[in-house]
Amino acid sequence: MKIFEYNEAKQVVVCGDIHGAFETLVYRTSVQYAMTDTVIIVAGDCGFGFERPNHYINLYNGLAGRLKKANNWIVFVRGNHDDPSYFQEEKICYGRFRCVPDYSVIQVCGLDILCVGGGVSIDRLARQREDARYIRKETASYWADEMPVFDEDKIKEISDYCLIDTVVTHTAPSFCPLLDKNGLRSWAAYDPQLLVDCDMERITMDRIYQTLKKNGHPVNKWYYGHFHQKWTWKYEDTDFKMLDIMEFSAVRTINFEEDD
User: Fold this and answer.
1) Handedness of CA 241, 115, 228, 23 (dihedral sign)
2) Would you say residue 67 has pLDDT above 60?
3) Residue 76 lies in a domain
4) What's the whole-model pTM score?
5) What is the SS3 string spanning 188-214?
């Protein structure tokens, strides 16, 4: 378990998938929407791993000035369109721009936010074939360990330090939208294991939710991306929010005024 504190921040915002549009993300938050003193958490499918490592170093160097001027920070959660090693090994760990490992906790604006990444790529066979066509030592487009992982020990460890009131993941529990599998069937015709793995992905999220509740965490809000749509959903006493690509949702400001 890792805890990242952002004591200077006055607002925390969650963003849906960005799929490599890092410059757009910084422009929209720091310029178009004039966000300042804000932690922006990207709920997966950031786009790490498709380019060589130096690409992301140069990218940050070009964006750092604008982030610093606005006093903003960006935290990236692992998606299925991300190389997991960037998150597990914290390959991107700049002060204002970092990838966090699964089961990291972000402490900001009086919140304890759990971040757990991972998901199933419905286009995984096509991406595997694409990777097989080229010998690329430092880049890829598919990673076999993309699935979310249930880790009860880490949740128990977190329970000793704080109470999680907000969760940010890439995918969602099985009782949350999207509930139908209509969009999967054409892909599953060529990938017979796909429906099974997609069910397992959602069951993993169920287990995380249930274990958090069992350990006394309030879990008031849960944000996720992955499905490229927007939706709100209430289950028991938790508000779930699905975010579309590059959609933003304010979680809390320093004066604890929350955006509905």
Assistant:
1) positive
2) yes
3) yes
4) 0.95
5) HCCCCCHHHHHHHHHHHHHHHHHHHHH
